[in-house]
Structures
1.
Amino acid sequence: MSAFARALAEHAPRIEARLQAEIAALPGSNVRDAMAYAARGGKKLRGFLVLESARLHGIGPEMALQAAAAIEAIHSYSLAHDDLPAMDDDDLRRGQPTVHVKWNEATAILAGDALQTLAFGLLARPDAAPTAEARLALIASLADASGGAGMVLGQALDIEAESADSPLTLQEITALQAGKTGALIAWSACAGARMAGADPAPLAAYAAALGLAFQIADDVLDVEGDAGLAGKRLQKDADAGKATFVSLLGLDGAKARARALVADAQDALACYGSGAHLLCDAAEFVITREN
Ligand code: GRG
C-alpha cells in the first residue's frame, strides 16, 4: 500500500466519524437518518485534501477535521441532489440505493439542504480555524465554490447541455467541470492555507490541474470502468450522447491529457518541498482510481 493510500485509509474514518457525530447530534427524524446515509462511505478525498493542506501549514487534524467534515457534508448534499429524478436520476450511489430511492424525493432534497447548512455551521464554530478572519475566509470561499459561481453553476451548465442543439466544445466542457467538480476540490486544497492566513495561490494552481484530471479520469472510468467497483451506473454519458473529455479527445488523448495535468499539479507543489509528498501522490491517485 502506498503512503498516500495509507494516509487516505487513516483519514477517511476520522472524517466520517466527525461528520456522523454532528449529524447524530440533530433531533431524530427521517431527514437526520437520510443525512447520515448520504454522508456514509466514499473516498473522502476532499476531506483528505483539507487535512493535508492544513498539515502543510502547521495545523493539526484536531482543528482541520471540522473543515474536512464540512466539505464532505457539501459533497454528500451535491451527490444526493444530483441523483434525484429531476437531475441525473440515478438509483445507485457508492454501491447502495440512492437517498430518494431508499426514502423519497422530499427527504432526499431536505437531507441535502440540511447537509449544506450543517457545513457552514461547522465552519462558523470557534474551533474551525485559529482566527475569526480565517473562519470567515473559509465560509465566504465555500459559498463561492459551492454556489451560483461554482458547483451549482457547473451543474446548471451540465443540465443545459443535455438539451443543447450541438455538443459542448472542449473549452466549454472544461469551464463546466471547473465549476461542477473543480470548485469543491479547489476549496479543499486551499483550506489549509486559508486557516493559516497564508497565500493559497500554489494550492489553487495544484487543485485546478487536479480537479480537471479527476474529471477526465471520471469520463475514462465511465467508458472503461467496472460498474461493480465504481458503485454506480456507467456509460451514462455516452448513452445520452453527451460530449465528454473522451468523446472530444479520444480515449488515449483523454488519458494523455490527464497524465499531463497530474505533472502540472505536482509541479505547482514544488514550493512546499517534500512536505507536500502526499498531495503529490494524491494527484497520481486521481487518474489511477477504480471508483
Ligand atoms: C446538485 C448542485 C448540485 C451539484 C452536483 C458533484 C455533482 C454536482 C455531481 C456529481 C456527478 C458526478 C458523478 C460528477 C463526477 C465527479 C464526481 C463529483 C464524482 C464523485 O466524487 P467522488 O469520486 O465520490 O469523490 P465519493 O463517493 O468517493 O465521495
2.
Amino acid sequence: MSQFITFEGPEGSGKTTVIQKVYEKLEKEFDVILTREPGGIKISEAIRELLLNSDDDMDERTEALLFAAARRQHLVEKILPQLNKGGIVLCDRFVDSSLSYQGYAREIGVEEVKAINEFAIENKYPDLTLYFDVPAEVGLNRIKDNQRDVNRLDKEEIEFHHKVTDGYKALIAEYPDRIKVIDATQSLEKVIEEAYSTVINSLKQE
Ligand code: TMP
C-alpha cells in the first residue's frame, strides 16, 4: 500500500488547493494527515520563514542544506510516526523539490543535492508522487492573478522556472513507477478528480 504520498509541481500548479481537497475526501475513509515542506512542524516552519521570507542573499548550498535540515526534522517528528502506526501521509512537496529547484535550477548538481538529502531521509522516498504538470509561464501568471503571496523563489527569472520544470521532467523519466503526471492545465474539478483517483487506485493496489 502506498502510504507516503507527495504532491509536486512548479509555482502556481494548483497542487496546494488539490492536496487539500484530496485530503478532505480521504479523511472520511482513512487515517491520513496533510502536511507540507518546508514546514509541517515548529522547527521546520521556522526554517521555512528563513528560506522563503528573508531578503538577505543566501548561498545556494546553504539553501539546499536548510531545505534538507527542515526535511529531516519533519520526517522524524511527523511523517515517520504516522507511517509507523499504519497511517497515510499526504505531503505538499518533498525531496523532488530539492532535486529540481536546488539540484537542477540552482545548478548545484542533482547528485550533490541527492547526497545531502539521502543523509537527511535515510532512503525514505515517497511511495507515490503526483506531479502537477503546467508550463512555467502559466503557473506564474496564475500566482499573479490570484494575488498569492510571492516568496523569495517565485521572484527568480523565468529561466529559473524553466529549469525547475526541466528538472522535474528528468525526475519523471528517472522514476516512472513512482511519479505520476497529472495535466494541471485542466479545470480544477478535473485535476482534483484525477489526483484523487490516482491516489485511491494506488492505495487499493496492494
Ligand atoms: P510552496 O510555494 O509550494 O509552499 O513551496 C515553497 C517554495 O520553496 C517553492 O518556491 C519551492 C521551494 N522549495 C525548494 O526550492 N526546495 C525544496 O526542497 C522545497 C520543499 C521547496
